[in-house]
Automatic annotation (TrEMBL):
Residues 10-64, 73-127 form the HTH cro/C1-type domain. GO terms for molecular function: DNA binding. Pfam families: HTH_3 (PF01381), HTH_31 (PF13560). This is Helix-turn-helix domain-containing protein.
Amino acid sequence: MPRQFDGRRVRAVRRGLDLHQRELAARVGVSAPRVAGWESGKEFPKGERLPAIAAALDQPLDVLFPHDGPPDLQLLRCDAGLSIAQAAEVIETTRVPVSNAESGRRRLNDAYVQPLARAYGVTERELLAAQDCSFGIRTSVSRSEQEAAPRSVGEKINYLLRYGYVDQEAPSNEEIARLVNEHAGAAVITVDGIVALRSGVTAEASDIVRAGLAQALQVDVGLFQDDAQVDPAARELLEAIRFLGSIHRGQILGLAARGNSAGLSAEMMAHINGLVGELKHKLPEVPEVPEVPEDGA
């Protein structure tokens, strides 16, 4: 499924880095008016440009441009930064086999699997699972299902930022570091430290940092304790956050339950969230009023 692109988020991150639109454009290899169009919502970049935009803004791809549901062939190609024509060059053929496989019309020739998997930076098994997804068949655990049970401190931060802020701007790395330090009453973590946790460069965090993260992101401190997998209560909280976010974004249009005074279980919410992720691309987008492009500042 395609990644979510929010021009307002791109603009906020760019401004946070004190970059002009022309500077971002130069890093990505496009014109400044094109960047202005992206940020205003008048245009959308091609999927294969998203990795370059995320890299230019020093942001993890999954954080800046999240996606729901298991990856299909188009997502794998775009995440590798390749156009259909470039993918076709890898297997020394026309665009037709790649296009047919991505659109679910005809599967890839077996001889194409290994070179494309190498070009996309995935295993052959992952490529074949993505191909199944392109044909409407779900054969393996999706990334979104894995994400439903984040394990590391950084994964939990990313999960909460992704799903826990509806109709409001999620706190930046700078804001999180400031709130953690304020809670600790001392400088216990830097902005680079937050980035390192979120990107997986480090998984180490002191108890005082974990307590500060819980305060900054408004969750129970137990969520950030070490564990091989989040406990049932924490998982239920995470699924509830994601579930409510789906409702507010209009991805769940209605829900009725009978004979259950205890509410939906974490397993049921996880199942609904998975369905939402698979069907999201079929739901109508809510139009937004385009913003006036900046003058480059």
